[in-house]
């Protein structure tokens, strides 16, 4: 009945959208996207004796001498190569300081990065890559795909209680009726923009952890999980969502330094060393990292192609690796900015389902290694059987289970 009411509400919401006020206009792209000059990232190694976890996220360490020394190195490198330092940011999860720099006009693509990578003062340098959310346009037919997972029954066993899930995405509407009180952290890593509630981030967050039992909207896969709303992406004028290496790295570092147990990355782009190394650290710590598959990419895109990431697709219309998980990703009801709801599709929302599932499994068995988590997931021709997965982990019947009565043995005279 709850899903039926939600469906009716969604249809009314869509109808109101068509004849009423549109969503707020998208903010301007950050400086990294507006400028004509190419930008690069330069990593300077932070020697172990100077490492301090008590970082101020304005690119300051308490050991001012070490910070100033690294800054002087960055300035020297900038002078030598005609670069302009735009921003510096500590990445204690990797023991590096990351500097965003602008290349001079007319610089040959790749040449400066190549030269910096050979410099003994530099850990590594790379171009800033662009990433996109893996979402399609909103769809209107009401087919609550989450019903496939029998969430009402699963919640009798676990709800993701107190599991910390990092949603690295565009902005999340913290006071949405389905998300009020669900955010443990709300941070903005997009330079030059104030925090904003945006469509993609709000929708992804709600699929993971929308409130249950509040009488409105939808219910998340893990309604008792705690969310880290880390804005590393931004909504552009067309409604699409964009991110880059630097903003994503800042958010990943924050998630790692603040105890995220699950990290949701509903986005895709090219292979990226900085992000790969941060994900390596996450996997080494047992963090469940979930990535959306890009159907247009031969390898599923990055970070889904990372061997430690739980790659997720919305359907099996193309040949996919056996390691790719399938999850609901078509006609998904979810929250939208402005205390509204809408229908969405795409592997972004499939990934959000799996992140919610990871929160549920983390509550049940927090000590499982990543290979153990993967082997515990029950996959059937129709997709993941979450009830069977929970039963496998707990040893208790979670949903509708068939009890087999042992045969009665009759002794013959």
In a nutshell, what does this entry contain?
This protein is of the alpha/beta class. It has helices at 2-19, 31-34, 64-81, 111-117, 151-154, 199-209, 245-257, 273-284, 347-364, 370-376, 386-394; strands at 39-45, 84-91, 96-102, 124-127, 130-133, 164-169, 183-188, 226-231, 233-235, 241-244, 262-265, 267-268, 288-292, 310-313, 325-326, 332-336, 340-344, 379-380, 383-384.
Notes on the structure:
The protein is an alpha/beta fold and 413 residues long. It contains 11 helices and 19 strands. The chain has helices spanning 2-19, 31-34, 64-81, 111-117, 151-154, 199-209, 245-257, 273-284, 347-364, 370-376, 386-394; strands at 39-45, 84-91, 96-102, 124-127, 130-133, 164-169, 183-188, 226-231, 233-235, 241-244, 262-265, 267-268, 288-292, 310-313, 325-326, 332-336, 340-344, 379-380, 383-384. Strands 7-8-6-11-13-14-15 form a 7-stranded parallel beta sheet, with helices on both faces. It starts with a helix and ends in a 19-residue tail after the last helix. Mean pLDDT is 84; it is low at 1-29, 49-62, 137-145 and 402-410.
Q: Please state how the strands of the largest beta sheet are arranged side by side.
A: 7-8-6-11-13-14-15
Shape: elongated
Compute the separation of the termini in Å.
Answer: 57 Å
Mean pLDDT score: 84
**Helix run count:** 11
The CATH topology of the largest domain corresponds to Rossmann fold
Low-confidence stretches: 1-29, 49-62, 137-145, 402-410
Q: What is the number of beta strands?
A: 19
